[in-house]
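Hey, can you fold this one?
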Amino acid sequence: MGSPDRLGAERRRAVRLALRFAAEVHLPGEAPVRGRSIDISSNGVLLALTREIPLGKEVRVRIVLTDGQEPLEITAMAVRSQAAPGSGTARVAFHFIMPNEKDLRRISSLIYD
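Sure. Predicted structure:
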């Protein structure tokens, strides 16, 4: 496996697009954490949430897209988290874990169409 710096660079190679969608993060045994997307790529998503998520935690991310289809529900891992002082929110970056082809096509169509 590559170094953390190399992995970060690989994640950044994917085109990111600033898009705002309703989102939820589902942690096992907890109520959903609600928020909105800040940007999305085929590798992951940056969310503004009502609280921070522990780094390295595997979760289900649910994103309500505007394409008229069911929301995306993708397993992801929190890889970066930063509290936004005074706002009561946190910016949390998630890396998608093995998204299926259908979800990848939907994300790509948002970015490239």
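The two ends are 33 Å apart (CA to CA). Let me know if you want another pass with a different chain boundary.
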